[in-house]
Design a protein that fits this description.
Blueprint lengths: L26 H42 L5 H19 L2 H4 L4 H12 L26 H23 L1
Helix pairs in contact: 1-2, 1-5, 2-5
Length: about 160
């Protein structure tokens, strides 16, 4: 009897693919890496815009509360108005632009927003030296409060114009 060998096929063993490397990155990772700095920048701009709006809004509320506060003297109110204007200016404008200004330069900076000389030549002159005065004689406080309200409104308009 003859033994026959079974028919052998030239088959190879199962071939496994190579392991997936982490480099080069897939397109999704590249998109993510590009979006992260963009999203961070956008969130920074949104944060900055919200804090600027908040500064003007809260300043208006503080000014109206100051207007109605009868426990403070006129000199204390003037000091509070001066500090309020300074804080708002530093939050809506770059610090380099307004933080170091004093005296007449500070008043001229405030006049730029209103396009009138009400701070440097009007009732706002008292803001230049209010910290060094002993009393607040000859100062029209209601007119200064109205001037401050106009200046705060101008800060809102200023931000809208800068965006355009």
């Amino acid at each position: 009897m003859t033994t026959t060998k079974p028919f052998e096929l030239p088959l190879r063993d199962i071939h496994l693919p190579d392991e997936i490397n982490w480099w080069p990155l897939a397109i999704g990772w590249w998109i993510t890496l590009a979006l992260i700095p963009i999203l961070l920048w956008i969130s920074f701009l949104i944060y900055k815009r919200l804090t600027q709006k908040t500064a003007v809004k809260s300043a208006k509320k503080l000014l109206s509360a100051l207007k109605q506060d009868e426990t403070k003297t006129e000199t204390e109110k003037l000091l509070d108005i001066s500090a309020l204007i300074r804080r708002v200016a530093m939050s809506v404008a770059p610090r380099e632009e307004c933080a170091s200004l004093t005296g007449n330069a500070w008043l001229q900076y405030l006049d730029k927003s209103l396009k009138t000389p009400d701070f440097s030549q009007g009732v706002g002159q008292c803001l230049a030296d209010i910290n060094y005065r002993k009393n607040s004689e000859n100062i029209n406080l209601p007119e200064l409060i109205n001037l401050t309200e106009r200046w705060l409104k101008a800060q809102k308009i200023r931000k809208v114009k800068e965006k355009q």
